[in-house]
């Protein structure tokens, strides 16, 4: 009797802890991603193609908080059993919205990776190549692609019901799960990693070139200083004048001017690299959050016996890679923007000021905004 009582108490404690965690994540997800959307809406400085894709990503995370997590919390409070009052239709909707949001997230990140590749590889023509219209076309493709694959869950695969509501809401179509996992996650993920590998290679090349330019400038000044010391005081004005004239002649050379106009400045390069760094962190967090989940989920379809292990280890894997990391990812992105992007941090403070009307938030945002530089081109 005491053993049963202990198990019951432990189960209730687990339910309370899980429901509390999901509720906190839901609130953070909703508030954080609303801040992202409002920041880009209110402040023209943030209205750029990259940030349009970030807003699309925020909307997919916001939908998780508004339409997916409430179902998860309800099932958790019901003792991890799907509530009968929600029925099969409720379960179908939950799985559908989850697939739409997950697919949109990875595809938005894929679109951002293409944006970063263009920005880093062709910084001078970035504004011409990546217009707002093209960004919106990418966003439309992202959501259409996600809706199509998610809506295939309504189809009876193999003549059987795709959705199962006993004991938990789940999907049981092996072929469909495989197609969706490959087409809507693993394939975009491979392209995403390739894009960022190319961005990293280009970034290293830019960094080396900037350092080489700095070394060349330093060497030039050192050589000029040595020449001035050896030339003597009498000839120094003439040599200085000669250098100025020769520099003036070089600056009037049309070929040299054309080359300088087509050569990205160190500031442009650093801007793009800073933006890429922040978004690379977002991508890394997404991969850590979702990759183990899809691997576990896909392997289970073909080898359910592969998970015959100690119950404690199995529970830990499920808690960490199924119940915690995928859910937390939706709340993580606004936190990353706050930590690594000064523009978004300032915009968040200003939006909070608009909402709360607190003057100290306005003063802090104004102080930050006066010293900040643009992170995106």
What does this structure look like?
This protein has 377 residues and is mostly helical. Helices cover 81% and strands 1% of the residues. The chain has 12 helices and 2 strands. The chain has helices spanning 2-42, 49-77, 87-121, 126-129, 132-151, 174-231, 236-251, 254-262, 266-302, 311-340, 342-356, 359-371, and strands at 163-164, 170-171. The protein has a two-stranded antiparallel sheet with strand order 1-2. A hairpin with a 5-residue loop joins strand 1 and strand 2. Helix 9 (266-302) runs antiparallel to helix 10 and helix 10 (311-340) packs across helix 11. The model is unreliable at 234-262 and 370-377 (pLDDT under 50).
Largest sheet: 2 strands, antiparallel
Helix count from the secondary structure assignment? 12
- Termini Cα gap: 67 Å
SSE string:
HHHHHEEHHHHHHH
The percentage helix is over 70%
Main features:
single chain; mainly alpha; two-stranded antiparallel sheet; 2 strands; 81% helix
Topology record:
Elements: H1 2-42, H2 49-77, H3 87-121, H4 126-129, H5 132-151, E1 163-164, E2 170-171, H6 174-231, H7 236-251, H8 254-262, H9 266-302, H10 311-340, H11 342-356, H12 359-371
Antiparallel strand pairs: 1-2
Brief summary:
By secondary structure, the protein is mostly helical. Helices cover 81% and strands 1% of the residues.
């Amino acid at each position: 009797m005491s053993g049963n009582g202990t198990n019951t108490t432990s189960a209730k404690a687990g339910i309370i802890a899980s429901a509390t965690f999901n509720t906190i994540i839901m609130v953070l997800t909703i508030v954080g991603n609303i801040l992202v959307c409002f920041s880009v809406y209110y402040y023209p400085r943030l209205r750029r193609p990259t940030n349009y894709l970030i807003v699309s990503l925020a909307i997919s995370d916001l939908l998780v908080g508004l339409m997916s997590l409430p179902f998860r919390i309800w099932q958790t409070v019901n003792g991890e059993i799907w509530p009968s009052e929600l029925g099969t239709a409720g379960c179908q909707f939950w799985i559908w919205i989850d697939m739409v949001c997950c697919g949109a997230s990875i595809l938005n990140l894929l679109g951002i990776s293409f944006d970063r590749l263009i920005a880093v590889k062709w910084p001078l023509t970035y504004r011409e190549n990546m217009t707002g219209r093209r960004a919106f076309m990418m966003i439309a493709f992202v959501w259409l692609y996600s809706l199509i694959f998610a809506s295939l869950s309504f189809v009876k695969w193999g003549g059987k019901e795709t959705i199962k509501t006993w004991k938990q809401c789940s999907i049981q179509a092996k072929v469909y799960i495989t197609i969706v996992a490959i087409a809507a996650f693993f394939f975009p993920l491979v392209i995403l990693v390739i894009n960022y590998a190319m961005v990293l290679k280009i970034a290293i090349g830019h960094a080396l070139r900037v350092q080489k330019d700095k070394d060349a400038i330093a060497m030039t000044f050192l050589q000029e200083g040595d020449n001035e010391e050896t030339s003597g005081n009498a000839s120094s004005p003439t040599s200085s004048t000669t250098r100025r004239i020769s520099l003036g002649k070089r600056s009037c050379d049309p070929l040299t001017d054309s080359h300088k106009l087509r050569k990205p400045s160190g500031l442009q390069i650093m801007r793009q690299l800073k933006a890429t760094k922040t978004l690379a962190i977002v991508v890394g967090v997404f991969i850590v959050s979702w990759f183990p989940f899809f691997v576990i989920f896909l392997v289970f379809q073909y080898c359910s016996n592969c998970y015959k292990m100690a119950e404690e280890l199995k529970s830990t894997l499920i808690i960490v890679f199924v119940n915690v990391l995928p859910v937390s990812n939706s709340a993580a992105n606004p936190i990353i923007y706050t930590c690594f992007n000064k523009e978004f941090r300032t915009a968040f403070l200003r939006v909070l000021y608009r909402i709360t009307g607190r003057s100290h938030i306005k003063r802090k945002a104004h102080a930050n905004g006066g010293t900040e530089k643009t992170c995106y081109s």
